[in-house]
Amino acid sequence: MTPGPADPADPAEPAGPAGPAGPADPVGAPDRSWLIAGLGNPGPWFRQTRHNAGFLAVDRLAERHGARFRRRGIATLVAEIEVDGRPVLLAKPLWFINLSGRPVAALLRRYGVPVERLVVVQDDLDFAFGSARLKRGGGPGGHNGVRSVGEVLGTRDFVRLRFGIGRPPKGQSVGDFVLKRFLDDELAAMPGELDRCADALETLVRLGLNRAQDTLNARPAPAACDGGKDAGHGAKADHGAR
Q1: Is 51 a catalytic residue?
Q2: Is 235 exposed, middle or buried (0-12, 13-18, 19+ CB in 10 A)?
Q3: Rounded Cα gap, residues 64 and 85, in angstroms
Q4: Each residue's pLDDT tens digit, 208-232
Q5: Separation of CA 85 from chain center
Q6: Does residue 162 contact residue 124 with C-beta atoms inside 8 Å?
Q7: Could you tell me where the beta strands, DSSP code E, fall in 50-202?
Q8: What is the DSSP letter of 74?
Q9: pLDDT above 60 for 20
């Protein structure tokens, strides 16, 4: 597929131009504002695929706060919430996942949010389904969306929430695996897993990274899938949209 912005006529996304919509954009964000960007691919075909775990997580957080996503900036959906009075911008870039860096960087500039308060929510092959981890910095681990964000920003000093999706079964490529829908039993468990992630993200905003890590890590993680934690996430396992 050819990377690019979502089709504005796609019924799964709000119609209209990719520019500002609704109230005028603020000149700058308050000092303690956050940007939480979920990574995924636009359009209904990708909605429940493993590569769209980032979209699913920010969708759940928006639902909790009764917020709606609207078009904003260069092909991005944005919702605004508050966590204990702290403004939080939720974003879903509508460029394909391996080009996520430009829309994320544009939002940081537009809203005046420092990179230290950027959270990127991603799918991760290194953890089994039902396991998620928060960390600051580190390499992309073969995830092309995370790589794009780091390259465009010129730094990796942002927080990442890594939602485990496991590894492909023997004989299936990584590219095919991440673009497949979650299994039925995974979808049945998904609301609880997304609530755990939403709890951790709210704790991060309220109390900081260490407390949020404790919240997310309170339940023992399932064992890593084939290959272990560090295997297979280099060039042979890159999993941006194909």
Answers
A1: yes
A2: exposed
A3: 15
A4: 999 999 888 766 545 444 433 333 3
A5: 23
A6: yes
A7: 70-72, 76-83, 86-93, 118-124, 132-136, 159-164
A8: T
A9: no
